[in-house]
Amino acid sequence: MVLILDGKKAAAEIRAEVKTEVARLGRSHGPPGLVAVIVGEDPASQTYVKNKEKGAIEVGMRPEVVRLPGSISQADLIAEIRRLNASDNIHGILVQQPLPPQIDEATIVRSVDPMKDVDCFHPENVGLLFQGHPRFAPATPSGVVELLRRNRIPISGREVVIVGRSNIVGRPLAALLLQKGETADATVTVCHSKTKDLPLVTRRADILVAAIGKAHFIKNGMVGEGAVVVDVGINRVPDGAGGSKIVGDVDFDAVSKIAAAISPVPGGVGPMTIAMLLKNTLHAAKMRSG
Ligand SMILES: NC(=O)c1ccc[n+]([C@@H]2O[C@H](COP(=O)([O-])OP(=O)(O)OC[C@H]3O[C@@H](n4cnc5c(N)ncnc54)[C@H](OP(=O)(O)O)[C@@H]3O)[C@@H](O)[C@H]2O)c1
Question: Residues 119, 231, 249, 251: which is the catalytic one?
Answer without folding.
Answer: 119
